[in-house]
Amino acid sequence: MIVPFAGRRVDPLDAEFTRFPLENIGLVKDRFRDFFLSHTPSMLISSGACGTDLLAQEVAGELQIERMMILPFSIKVFRKTSVTDRPGDWGLLYDRIVLELEKKEKITRLNYSEKDKDAYEKTNLEILNQADRIKKNENDVIALVAWEGQKKESDDATAHFMQAARERKFQVMEIKTI
Question: What residues make up the domain containing 120?
Answer without folding.
Answer: 2-11+18-176
